[in-house]
Amino acid sequence: GCGSDSASGDSTGSDGEVRKIKVAYDQASKPISWLDDNGNPTGYDVEAMKLVDELLPEYEFEFVGTTSDDLLVGVSQGKYQVGVKNAFWTEERTEKFIYPKEFLGLSSIGLVLKKENEQIKSLEDFASAGMTLAPIAANNAQYTVIDEYNQKNPNNPVKLKAGDTFSVDTIQWVNEGRVDGGVIIEGPFEKQVLAEDGPYHNLVDEVVYNEFNVIKTWPLFNKKEQEFADAYDEAIKKLKEEKKLNGLMEEFYNRDLFEVLDQVER
Amino acid sequence: MQKYFDASYIWDAFPTLIPFLKVTFLVVILSVLFGSFLGFILATMKIGKNKFAKKIAHGYTTVLRCTPSIVLLFLVYYGVPAIFINFGIDLNDIDKAIFVVLTFTLQFGAIMSEVIRTAYESIDKGQYEAAVSVGLSPPQAYRRIIFPQAFVVALPNFGNGLLELLKEGSLAYTIGLIDVMGKANMIIASNYNSHALEIYIALSIIYWVLSIAIEQFFLKLERFFSKGKQVVKSV
Amino acid sequence: MLQLKNVHKSFGKNEILKGVDLSIDKGDVVVIIGPSGSGKTTFLRCINFLEKADQGQASFGELTVDLHSASKRQIHQIRQKVAFVFQNYNLFNNKTALENVTEGLIIGRKIPKGKADEIGKQALDKVGLSDKYQSYPGELSGGQQQRVGIARAVALNPDIILFDEPTSALDPELVGEVLTVMKDIANEGTTMLVVTHEMSFAQNVANRVIFMNDGVVVEEGSPHDIFVQPKEERTKKFLRRILAEDYEYHI
Amino acid sequence: MLQLKNVHKSFGKNEILKGVDLSIDKGDVVVIIGPSGSGKTTFLRCINFLEKADQGQASFGELTVDLHSASKRQIHQIRQKVAFVFQNYNLFNNKTALENVTEGLIIGRKIPKGKADEIGKQALDKVGLSDKYQSYPGELSGGQQQRVGIARAVALNPDIILFDEPTSALDPELVGEVLTVMKDIANEGTTMLVVTHEMSFAQNVANRVIFMNDGVVVEEGSPHDIFVQPKEERTKKFLRRILAEDYEYHI
Amino acid sequence: MGIDVPFLIDTFFIALSGVPVALLITIVALFISLPLGFLLALTRLNQLPILNQFSRVYVSFVRGTPVIVQIFIIYNSVPLLLARIFEKYDIQSSVYDINPIWYAFIVFSLNTTAILIEVFRSAINTVSKGQLEAALSVGLTQPQAFRRIIIPQTLVVALPNICTATVNLIKATSLGYAMSLHEITLKAQVAANVGYNYVEAYIDIFLVYLILCSVVEYLFKWYEKRLTKYKIVSV
Ligand SMILES: Nc1ncnc2c1ncn2[C@@H]1O[C@H](COP(=O)(O)OP(=O)(O)OP(=O)(O)O)[C@@H](O)[C@H]1O
Ligand SMILES: Nc1ncnc2c1ncn2[C@@H]1O[C@H](COP(=O)(O)OP(=O)(O)OP(=O)(O)O)[C@@H](O)[C@H]1O
Ligand SMILES: [Mg+2]
Ligand SMILES: [Mg+2]
């Protein structure tokens, strides 16, 4: 067994002793989490966790930037106590990680399409039209979403391919016609296309974003960190009640997804 | 194509990328240093008479050659602290760069052991015999006669290994250590994955220039050290 | 001055030397002849510990050592007294002619560089290479390389120089060049043990000729004894074969 | 049968052959001697197009070609008529002795394998290697390798065989072995052009000796003419030097 | 941390099912680059004017830049170029229906060719010119001489390095995931994603490559022994 609580894991909260927590984040996943040009971690997930830190005096967070693969291995192994990477929930994953009771954020997920295909509103439409989909990184939550859809609709599946984050520039691929559509989170689409200074603002009349789902995203806790996860729950609950997270949403996603929370299935 | 391809991204990338060469260099230089040392020890085991040591060294080389670097990196990054924790030593807080260097040291050692072994074996046994026959002690014979000649033979392959390492070094990014390759990925991420082609072109130019420089440097070294070398052909 | 007793050596199951004795006095020039594979090279190499004999003693003046179990120190001591000239020269490829000669002096004997250079230059002058101090082996002809090899041995001022077929890797025109140098050195009184196929050298320079066959000394004596009136049948047969061509031409 | 006219060849600015003429009749054994660097090897190589001459003609019976501008077909035709025995054997390392001999027959001449094997075995028998058909070059002694080289040339049944110092890479005891084979082949009436330093062979076997120096033929004649009463000063000087040792010994 | 053993076993076989793709890429790449590398090595040795320069630049670029960057550049720019060409000549097929494995063939063939040029260049140098001359002198044509005498001997010398190149190639095919190729790494990672079983996935990847590469290495050693039967005695 490898674990962290022999050396660094002195029990929490007692005698005002402050426990150090390593929070791993995907450092190249703007705007959810990334390392900015000044070398500071930021993004919705990161900033939300910073707020959590403020409410937990008995814990001190240290943010460790890394890649998604390492984050998953590292949190499950105990090198990091918690990790944020816009993770979605699946039954199987609860075997490996503690999912807390309270989610961390919301993610609007949708299809990027050419203007002329605007009428495609859902995965069903997309699949029925026999369209091709840009590859999605295998370790990306979006992959799971499509995969689950396919499991549920074996008669009308989407053509799903795994690929690499960096080699696929979804919006460009769609525009080029290399694929008919791509799955994307709303945030990046906003920043790339809709924003005045976005790198693909010139395509603003060529491509559209059609949301098909809003999904809760979660921090992943190491299996031994139940106590800490409970503390997190307390804190994040308070933040939600105080509407502190809504501002972060606006800031990073240009949209407050809490407004559609009642429609969220998972 | 102009619509997507914007050369200005290439120019803009250079000043951002170049400072991160520091990390690349650090990793490469340290790994080469320690890796050559390890390779030397392994080569000695292979050349020596001890059958057991021979088997170990050859087995080590096979396994390391067959392990993808990324797997090795994870094995080291998670395996080594896991071992040390049993002795009550916590390595989780030490710098990531150390694990990266350790990984490449292990790998480079395997490659270098073969380079050194073949270089050593290419030197005629007569050179050693002549050296001891003029009264040099065996260690003196190795130091003054065998090694300088083996060094020249090993140089080109050493250069190849170095170039290979330089490129593999980009793997460090997987565990979050940001070198040039990592920085390029982060620039792309901060552009929301757009204009990646331009950034990668800038990156490949940097790598290319670097390896040409290294290649030339090694050619010069080779020429410098092989002064007396034409002999071998004429005999 | 040098005595060798009962030298035995096997490679695997092959017994190559089956008890060879030899005694050389100061100033002697002894030539060993014999068919290919008879163990001549192996014998020379055993004297210098380039090959470890299975059995046998060597005495250099006072110093007597066991060829099989000599200590590192003893080996080093003997190598200081013995120099070796190799068939294929074995010059240090990474050193100039002069450095080849001085290497053993500076590193092996701890003679200061200045003094060693002086000795080295003298030795090279002696073999007629005054203008080649700074040449690397690759820049020298075969004959010149072998002359550097001889200078390297001479400079050490050893008690005895062992030559293993010093001319057989040379082409005919270069042979003369090397033999002349060897003759000069012999005339200066250097003790030499020479394995060679050059019968003219054996006839003119040696004061003793040894015929070896199949790991034993078959016959030894003055050049006249061996070449003109050999006693053993094996010796006669060998000489007939090796001299055949030359005779043929001159008849 | 073979005529060469006005062969010129330069390497860079160095003119190596300065117009060499030669005419050989069927059954002739011609020996070329001359100092190192005089262009003997280069001349042989030009005949076989291993080196492209700058100028010159070759006539084989009917066929006359320009050495500089011969077409691929002509070159191939001539190579079928001429065989070459190399100084350092140049046996195909990856082929057995027999395969070395049959390679040119099967692939070059398109002779069926069965027939080629038969010819190859005969040729190897002729040079005394009946028991080495299946040996690789690495398993043969120098003398045996050179004999395979000769068998390889003989088996092609060429109009002429060119030998470039076929014995100079051999050690003294193996020289005899090869020279004997060459003598036998000469006695069978094979036309031969031989570069060699073996004076006894030249004396006994050649019916013509050519002395080359500095890219030109200085003198030619019967062995007696050249060795006993050479006319040119340069020839005399060369002979004195190369024969010096042998004389010394026999005096 | 706890290893999910059933998952480990299942995924091992999933990863194993990626072996055919990895092998296909490897074999196609070798099939193209062995002859091509040999020919280009000859042009370099013979200093053919334009080809020589070309292959120098080519080798230096390919060896100097990371494979993943090359993949990226090819994968993203070739379709753009092709699309324009198709458009111009009115070719009625979609560039984007091309199976990505074709890009893998291109990238890995280009890469392996560059490495093999260097391997062959040094190997051809070890075969003495006399072998060619002897072959010509017994009446073989130049192509015959190469096929029957020079190439077999070159191959023997080159084989250990070709083995290294092949093992590296197999490992490098894992980068095919960037082109959505269903090879070993991608399959294992996709399987891992559902339950985030990355530790198990990497162990499986490790095992599959270790087995695959060891087998390849073993085959090469065996073949080398067979090829060198003529060499054994001469040592
Ligand atoms: N290292 C070795 N291992 C096995 N056998 C050896 C070794 N060295 C020499 N021999 C064998 O020992 C025998 C004698 O070799 P040696 O070189 O002493 O003969 P030589 O008299 O010098 O012959 P030559 O005149 O050909 O040089 C040969 O049969 C040789 O094959
Ligand atoms: N490929 C080459 N390039 C440049 N110079 C060459 C080449 N081949 C031979 N030479 C030069 O041509 C001259 C004649 O060489 P060649 O080999 O024909 O002489 P040779 O008479 O055969 O001498 P030897 O008896 O030493 O073999 C020499 O000075 C040599 O340096
Ligand atoms: Mg010997
Ligand atoms: Mg010649």
Give, in order, the helices and strands of chain E: HHHHHHHHH
Overall pLDDT score of chain C = 88
Helix percentage range of chain C: 40-55%
| Heteromolecules bound | adenosine-5'-triphosphate, magnesium ion
What fraction strand of chain E? under 5%
Helices of chain E, by number, come to: 9
Structural class of chain C: alpha/beta
What is the helix/strand order of chain C? EEEHEEHEHHHEHEHEEHH
How many β-strand runs of chain E? 0
Assembly of the depicted chains:
heteropentamer
> What is the radius of gyration of chain E?
21 Å
Strand order of the largest sheet of chain C: 6-7-8-3-9-10
Distance between the termini of chain C: 42 Å
Largest beta sheet of chain C, briefly? 6 strands, mixed
Mean pLDDT of chain E: 86
Helix-residue proportion of chain E: over 70%
Largest interface: A-B, 42 and 29 residues
Task: Please tell me how large the radius of gyration of chain C is.
Answer: 18 Å
Say how many strands of chain C there are. Answer: 10
Gist of the model:
Chains C, D: InterPro entries: AAA+_ATPase, ABC_ATPase_HisP-typ, ABC_transporter-like_ATP-bd, ABC_transporter-like_CS, MetN_ABC_transporter-like, P-loop_NTPase. The complex is a heteropentamer, with 1 copy of chain A (266 residues), 1 copy of chain B (235 residues), 2 copies of chain C (251 residues) and 1 copy of chain E (235 residues). Chain B is an all-alpha fold and 235 residues long.
Please characterize this protein's 3D structure.
The complex is a heteropentamer, with one copy of chain A (266 residues), one copy of chain B (235 residues), two copies of chain C (251 residues) and one copy of chain E (235 residues). Chain A is α/β, with parallel strands linked by helices and 266 residues long. Helices cover 31% and strands 24% of the residues of chain A. Chain A contains eight helices and eleven strands. The two termini of chain A are 33 Å apart. The N and C termini of chain B lie far apart (60 Å). In chain B, 48% of the residues are buried. Chain C is α/β, with parallel strands linked by helices and 251 residues long. Chain C has nine helices and ten strands. Chain C has helices spanning 40-47, 72-81, 97-108, 113-126, 142-155, 172-187, 199-205, 223-228, 233-250, and strands at 2-11, 14-24, 29-33, 55-60, 63-66, 82-85, 160-164, 192-195, 208-213, 216-221. In chain C, a hairpin with a 2-residue loop joins strand 1 and strand 2 (14-24). The longest helix of chain C has 18 residues, at 233-250. The model of chain C is unreliable at 245-251 (pLDDT under 50). Chain E has 235 residues and is mainly alpha-helical. Helices cover 79% and strands 0% of the residues of chain E. Chain E contains nine helices and no strands. Chain E has helices at 5-16, 19-45, 49-64, 67-88, 101-126, 129-137, 142-172, 184-195, 198-227. The chains are: A alpha/beta (266), B mainly alpha (235), C alpha/beta (251), E mainly alpha (235). Chains in contact: A-B, A-E, B-C, B-E, C-D, D-E. The A-B interface holds A 2-4, 6-8, 22, 27-30, 34-37, 64-67, 69-70, 73-74, 77, 79, 165-172, 175-176, 188, 191-192, 198-200, 202 and B 3-4, 74, 77-78, 81-82, 85, 88, 90, 92-93, 173-176, 178, 185-186, 188-197. Bound molecules: adenosine-5'-triphosphate (2 copies) and magnesium ion (MG) (2 copies). One magnesium ion binds next to helix 1 of chain C. Chain E: It is found in: Cell membrane. Chain E: Pfam families: BPD_transp_1 (PF00528). Chain E: Keywords: Amino-acid transport, Cell membrane, Membrane, Transmembrane, Transmembrane helix, Transport.
